[in-house]
Amino acid sequence: MTIEEKRVVTMHYKLTDDAGQLLDESQDNPLLYIHGTNSLIPGLEKQLEGKTIGDKITTSVPPEEGYGPVMPQLIQNLPKDTFQGVENIEVGMEFEASNENDEKMIVRVEAIDGEEITINGNHPLAGKTLNFDVDIIDVREASEEELGHGHVHGEGGHQH
Ligand code: ZN
User: Fold this and answer.
1) What is the assigned CATH class of domain 72-120?
2) Which CATH number fits domain 7-67+127-149: 3.30.40.230, 3.30.465.10, 3.10.50.40, 3.30.1850.10?
3) Which of 14, 45, 74, 125 is the S-S candidate for 121 at Cβ 3.0 to 4.6 Å?
4) How many angstroms does the Cα of residue 131 sit away from the middle of ligand 1?
5) Coil, strand or helix: which one is 131?
6) Cα(25)–Cα(73) distance, integer angstroms
7) What's the pLDDT score for residue 84?
8) Residue 139 in contact with residue 7, Cβ under 8 Å?
């Protein structure tokens, strides 16, 4: 069975950046997703289309088909006062913030320079070329219920 819309794909993957540094991998638990539901980044989903069980795919996804470019306007310097109520601000901390469209977003503390805090609302993988090694373990039809919920049920998926 080949990978196409409304099918559940079970896969192992390894993600490295252009410097060869490991960014993410499925390890013991394979990743399950419903193809065609934008669960994966577009550049990867496109490469998996039409593949089948046992296929190994090596692909390089540019930022435009991944998590997008780094947007400088999402990097801001704020005075420490902005974080009133937070005891110890440390690099790497994440906060929920609202953008000008009132959408919730996660911002990370990128740097601390005295009274000035640099926050970054870009996805950590924005601006990166993503190199995937994928092993397709299984492909099956999604159930009506899974399609209704928009996620995979059973082993490796939602248990409910
Ligand atoms: Zn469900």
Assistant:
1) mainly beta
2) 3.10.50.40
3) 74
4) 30
5) strand
6) 30
7) 83
8) yes
